[in-house]
């Protein structure tokens, strides 16, 4: 499995901020190590110098009800990209279906700020979603899918994505209440899974992000 080194994380995140001037603020959310050494994480300014646990706790107070599920059969690099986008939309949770180990490199450590759950198979995911009153909506350009841009996604939606290439399995399609596809205007048959996930999450946010 590929992980980012601390140097790679710093390089990708940008310059960040240096050590905090003393005297340091009296705030339990702040991390003494970050205050002393600087904060080069890929976080918004609001969370500079905050402890990881404090950032997660604050995000938990305003997470959107949207959830995202990803089939993990091929150790797909795109899973990390989907997770990173899920963090950007502050979703309630990400569900990895299939292999427990997934390629975290593309996530750029954003999975640390999310609630990521593993499901060994489709049935386990479907049972969890039903128990928590979620509607599974598959995102794939399969027969029977309807245009995403003309679809009213429920507030408690779990967007479901397949592996890059094969897409959603037949079993996962059967577990979804509906299928949506992103209308394309070029020559390729399908869109990169990471890009499709970003578009689908944005489509949900257009309707529900301000209302959540």
From TrEMBL:
Sequence ranges assigned to domain tRNA/rRNA methyltransferase SpoU type in this UniProt record: 66-202
Record key words, sorted: Methyltransferase, Transferase
InterPro entries on file: Alpha/beta_knot_MTases, rRNA_Methyltransferase, SpoU_MeTrfase, tRNA_m1G_MTases_N
PANTHER family attached to this UniProt entry: RRNA METHYLTRANSFERASE 3, RRNA METHYLTRANSFERASE 3, MITOCHONDRIAL
Protein name: tRNA G18 (Ribose-2'-O)-methylase SpoU
UniProt organism field: Microlunatus capsulatus
């Amino acid at each position: 499995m590929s992980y980012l080194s601390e140097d790679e994380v710093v390089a990708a995140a940008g310059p960040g901020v240096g050590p905090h001037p003393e005297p340091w603020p009296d705030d339990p959310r702040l991390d003494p190590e970050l205050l002393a050494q600087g904060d080069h994480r890929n976080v918004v300014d609001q969370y500079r110098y905050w402890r990881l646990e404090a950032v997660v706790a604050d995000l938990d107070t305003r997470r959107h009800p949207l959830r995202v599920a990803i089939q993990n059969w091929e150790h797909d690099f795109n899973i990390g990209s989907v997770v990173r986008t899920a963090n950007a939309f502050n979703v309630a949770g990400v569900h990895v279906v299939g292999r427990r180990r997934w390629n975290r490199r593309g996530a750029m450590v954003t999975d640390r700020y999310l609630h990521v759950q593993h499901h060994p198979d489709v049935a386990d995911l479907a049972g969890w979603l039903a128990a928590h009153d979620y509607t599974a909506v598959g995102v794939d350009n399969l027969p029977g899918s309807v245009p995403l841009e003309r679809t009213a996604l429920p507030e408690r939606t779990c967007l479901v994505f397949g592996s890059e290439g094969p897409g959603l399995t037949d079993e996962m399609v059967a577990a979804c209440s509906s299928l949506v596809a992103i209308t394309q205007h070029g020559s390729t048959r399908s869109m990169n899974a990471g890009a499709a996930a970003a578009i689908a999450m944005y489509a949900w946010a257009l309707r529900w992000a301000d209302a959540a």
